[in-house]
Amino acid sequence: MIKVLIADDQELMRQSLQIILGMEQDLEVIGAVENGTEVIRAVRKEKPDVILMDIRMPEMDGVVCTQIIKENYPNIRIIILTTFDDDEYVFNALKYGASGYLLKGISTKELAEAIRKVYHGTAMINEDIASKVLRLFSRMAQTNLAIQVDEKQTADLKPTEWHIIALVGRGMSNKEIAGKLGLSDGSVRNSLSAILSKLDLRDRTQLAIWAVQTGAVNRDMEDKM
To answer: What is the CATH number of domain 2-138?
Structure first.
């Protein structure tokens, strides 16, 4: 059972999401709160697996709340569910560790499936803003926001791990990477964990940004030339 916490300042939205997600056999809504401060209280008490987080909430917004949660509970997955696709919101939510960024117009089926995928380690980004995210990653490569990895940390990376890094940088899911490289989903998940540990990175979002910044995103192409 996947434990889900809902955070939205609109009561109607909270109630609707509770009803909709409560109909899914493998999802359990453990709470619905209206601001970031309440999210933190609920997390301490309930330990959810996935949080559906609105951006604009009173007292503490979703971006700040995401940062605090991921710093203290890195294993909790956070999906930003909002009506806003503003560049700054997208950038900050992903920078602080959100696993997904979805607009509220998605269908019930899509939302439930997104929760399942994020729970199992796949990043989920609404198609309407996916291209914007890729542009943001590219711009970040030219700024002082670069993610730092010591060259010594890359020395132990295996050829397959470099291929996985490149494909993560192109936005591929674990399943897509597994198909591309002829591996099992489990092997890809294990390799990703090893890669993040070796590079001392928090999650696949940081890995994707680093891959774009360093050019590692093109490495497997270069190996074939």
So the answer is: 3.40.50.2300
Alpha helix segments (H runs only) across 59-144: 62-72, 87-95, 108-119, 127-140
Q: How many angstroms separate the CA atoms of 160 and 165, rounded?
A: 9
Q: How far apart are CA 201 and CA 143, in angstroms?
A: 19
More reliable by pLDDT, 84 or 36: 36
CA distance 44 to 88: 28
Treating both helix axes as pointing N-terminal to C-terminal, what angle do 174-181 and 159-169 enclose, rounded to 10 degrees?
A: 130
CATH 3.40.50.2300 in the chain, residues? Answer: 2-138
Token match 């971006």: residue? 63
CB 3 within 8 A of CB 47: yes
Does pLDDT of 72 surpass 70? yes
Q: What span, in angstroms and rounded, lies between the C-alpha atoms of 150 and 148? A: 7
32: enclosing H helix or E strand? strand 27-33
Kindly calculate the radius of gyration of the chain based on its CA atoms and give it in whole angstroms. Answer: 18
Whether this model's pTM surpasses 0.85: no
Looking at residue 213, what is its pLDDT? 75
Class of domain 151-224: mainly alpha
Residues 3 and 28 sit within 8 Å (Cβ to Cβ): yes
Element (H, E) at 14: helix 11-22
